[in-house]
């Protein structure tokens, strides 16, 4: 059965290494009939959560702040699979991804018990080194807390400049992971 996939790409480089991985993932996923929508968070107008606990009143636009998250909310709500994609920044995910993810709390606020919608997920990351441990820990704990099911991780080390990734095995792995969905 075809699935709806949302990619939250926290890299500011639209042609960068993270984007190369998400592109291959999306290619594989689309080839087997899934629907993929990717958001490049770095070029969107997305503000940090204000912690006001005042959201959740309008399911179509659940946050009190009105910015580009309103483009993401409807796609997120419909999505079966959430792909969290980011370059490794100071041994963790980028601020762009964390900022957008915090704002998804407004969706949980639509539920009287702050329950987050159940999703499947994927982690995609690129880095100069190979220090993904802290990010993996964050992702694994997030999955557990939200009750989400991880479908896999694509972690590509050894890439710094745009284009460094071109011969990396992880591009094929990302494509295969996308293709395995459905
Ligand atoms: C602010 C910043 C912090 C970074 N921190 C790390 C790091 O902690 N470890 C690492 O291996 N690479 C680090 N890098 C390198 C990036 O992860 C690497 O260049 C990656 O390929 C960028 O992905 P992109 O092309 O999708 O932007 C950092 C880069 C920047 C700009």
Q: Looking at CATH, which topology would you report?
A: Rossmann fold
Task: Give me the count of strands.
Answer: 5
Order of helices and strands: EHEHEHHEHEH
Distinct ligands: flavin mononucleotide
Question: Helical amount among residues, as a percent range?
Answer: 25-40%
What class would the helix/strand composition place it in? alpha/beta
Question: Mean pLDDT, as a whole number?
Answer: 98
Q: What spatial form do the alpha-carbon principal axes imply?
A: globular
CATH superfamily: Flavodoxin domain
Features:
five-stranded parallel sheet, 182 residues, globular, alpha/beta, binds flavin mononucleotide, Rossmann fold, single chain
Describe the structure.
With 182 residues, the protein is of the alpha/beta class. The protein has a single domain, classed as Flavodoxin domain (Rossmann fold). It contains six helices and five strands; from the N terminus they run E-H-E-H-E-H-H-E-H-E-H. It has a five-stranded parallel β-sheet, with helices on both faces. The longest helix is centred in the N-terminal third of the chain and has 15 residues. It is globular and about 50 Å long. It binds flavin mononucleotide. The site of flavin mononucleotide (FMN) has 19 residues, from helix 1.
SSE inventory with pairings:
Elements: E1 4-9, H1 17-31, E2 35-40, H2 69-78, E3 81-87, H3 95-103, H4 105-108, E4 120-126, H5 133-146, E5 149-156, H6 169-179
Parallel strand pairs: 1-2, 1-3, 3-4, 4-5
Bound molecules: flavin mononucleotide (FMN).
Flavin mononucleotide (FMN) binds at residues 11, 13, 16-19, 87-91, 126-129, 131, 159-160, 162.
């Amino acid at each position: 059965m075809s699935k709806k996939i949302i990619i939250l790409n926290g890299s500011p480089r639209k042609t960068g290494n993270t984007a190369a991985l998400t592109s291959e993932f999306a290619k594989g996923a689309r080839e087997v009939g899934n629907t993929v929508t990717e958001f490049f968070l770095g070029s969107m107008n997305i503000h940090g959560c204000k912690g006001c606990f005042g959201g959740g009143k309008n399911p179509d636009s659940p946050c009190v702040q009105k910015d580009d998250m309103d483009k993401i909310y409807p796609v997120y709500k419909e999505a079966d699979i959430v792909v969290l994609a980011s370059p490794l920044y100071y041994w963790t995910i980028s601020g762009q991804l964390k900022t957008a993810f915090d704002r998804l709390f407004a969706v949980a606020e639509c539920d009287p018990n702050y329950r987050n919608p159940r999703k499947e997920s994927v982690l995609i990351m690129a880095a100069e080194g190979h220090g993904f441990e802290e990010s993996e820990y964050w992702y694994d704990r997030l999955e557990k807390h939200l009750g989400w099911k991880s479908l896999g991780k694509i972690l590509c080390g050894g890439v710094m400049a745009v284009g460094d990734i071109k011969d990396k095995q992880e591009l094929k792995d990302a494509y295969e992971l996308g293709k395995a969905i459905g």
